[in-house]
Amino acid sequence: ADELAQTLIARGQNADAIPILRSALQLAPQNVTALYLLAKAANSVNDGQAYDEAVAGLQKTENGKIMGLVLSAEKLYDESATEHDTAKRDQALDMFEQARKQQDSLAVPYIYRARYLFENGRFADAILDLDRALERSPRHPTALLLKALALNANNRPAEALPVLQELVTVNPDTNCWVALADTHARLGQIEELATDFAKVKELGGDPAALVEDRAAQLEAEGRLADAIAAIEQVPTLPDYAANPMLLRRLGIVLTKSGRYEEALSTYDQQAQAESALAEDQRDAFLPINRFRALLPMGRYDDPAKQLEAFSATAQPGTYQWPSL
Q1: What whole-number distance in Å separates Cα of residue 284 and Cα of residue 287?
Q2: What torsion do the CA atoms of 149, 84, 76, 9 make, to the nearest 10 degrees?
């Protein structure tokens, strides 16, 4: 019951987990894990009665008090992320450390410390803590997902893949398929990437936006060749062969790479792909992006025409105006 409830909570099905945990607690009222999970689920759906019952139950045993400390630390850390409050974050990390010292068999303190390390770019250190968490809870969905993300961020996609394959058997949600898409893209496994994209789309996500975000991140890191490669994989998939958003990003990165003719050709493809769209759905920045590719080539008449086209919509007070 505990593992099923944990899986439901990881999937965001907190309301479904509550009756399962209550049934488990009727058989074993001092089941600390069930009480902890009930408090988490109840808090997520604002079920104050169930939350209070769970917290009261945790206070009746020493182990329960430690789990109560972990629960409070989780709430505090999550609040700190929302509020960008480093003091709250540090307080939460201290509470996790207290809980770990009192009961080192718990996975959650290691997961949250790993989350902090991951958020601060310390991917290798995060992986070590996630390994410790998984030793204590081998199928913990959050630990599996975060480990895969850290491995990818550490440029170790071949190691991330089996972790995600395990996660698929536990919690195949959107985050899981997004991580798999990133992993298969890094490994150049296009057929598998197509399957990932289909799953992401089925779950309500936008695969093209995921690729665009990754390419933009690589571009911001100065990894222009990697950004181009990330985008150029996608047009091999039929549904994304002429995606305007991806063509726009590819043109921008090609321009930054000094590949101006290719950038202009890409912008022509973008314009063609947008021709069937309503005017207000087309990329208002296409003329100025063309300008940026034309100017270094010394074709001064053409850039001037692009600026004129752009200035028709880039009036003072509009979001285009700063670029003009």
Answers
A1: 7
A2: -40
CA distances from 125 to 77, 108, 109 (A): 19, 16, 14
168 — pLDDT class (breaks 50, 70, 90): very high
Percent helix, strand, coil in the chain, to 5, is 75, 0, 25
Instruction: Dump pLDDT digits (tens) for 98-138.
Output: 999 999 999 999 999 999 999 999 999 999 999 999 999 99
Do 136 and 156 meet the contact criterion of CB atoms below 8 Å apart? no
Distance from C-alpha of 87 to C-alpha of 66, rounded to nearest angstrom? 22
- Please state the pTM of the whole predicted model: 0.76
**φ and ψ of 242, to 5 deg:** -135, 55
Q: pLDDT of 47-93, one tens digit each? A: 888 888 888 888 888 888 898 888 889 889 999 999 999 999 999 99
Separation of alpha carbons 295 and 290, rounded Å: 9
Q: Which value, in Å, is the radius of gyration of the alpha carbons in the chain?
A: 25
| Helix/strand number for the chain, H first, E second | 18, 0
Q: Which amino acid is at 111?
A: I
Among 78, 74, 91, which residue's Cα sits nearest to residue 36? 74
Tell me if 237 sits within 8 A of 194, measured CB to CB: yes
- The torsion of the CA quartet 75, 77, 82, 84, rounded to 10 degrees, works out to 150
Instruction: For residue 141, give the H/E element and its range.
Output: helix 141-153
The two structure tokens encoding residue 96: 């996790």
Please tell me whether residue 123 adopts helix, strand or coil conformation.
helix
Q: Which of 120, 118, 41, 49 is nearest to 74 (CA)?
A: 41
First to last CA, the chain: 60
Q: Residue 31, by phi and psi: left (phi above 0), alpha (psi -120 to 50) or beta?
A: beta
Higher pLDDT, 64 or 253: 253
